[in-house]
Amino acid sequence: QVLIDVPRSDLAKELAQSETKTQVLQDTLQQVLDRREEERQSRQLLELYLEALKTEDSVLSKVAEPQAAPRKEMDVVDTGTSSTGPPVKTALSDQILATLREKPAPELCLDSQDLEEVLKEDRAVLASALGWARQKAGALQDACEQELSKRLQQVQSLRSLRSTAGGRRGLA
To answer: Which SUPFAM superfamilies does the entry mention (predicted)?
Structure first.
């Protein structure tokens, strides 16, 4: 950094080189410093990503319970509250509904696909299925939407890092 900050003419005199060669040297040094900073930032982002994965894995392992049916199948749950009216049906699985009811921050316990399913569900149907007020179900859907958005941003950041790293390999 010191060599970059020194005025070009002074550095050229000290090195007994032309100012053109000195400029090339300073530009090269600046590129090295820029690359190191980008690598440092990439490492920090990767460490945050790995830490988030560990946290998510530990949360998911606490939630994971044996299932009788494969996970991909979705149950239609009859949650009608009265025998006179038509039953309210939701496409959410029993496991998703249980997670939504029982966990203090269920959006952190669901995978991205489950979050999307919760967001697709009609707010009134979700409230009825959970036995909650519509406002509480809406707040849950908002939290799920924020979590899904955050996850998508992380994926985009990683893709950007990969493309930047891949472009640098091609230049080297």
So the answer is: C-terminal domain of DFF45/ICAD (DFF-C domain) (SSF81783)
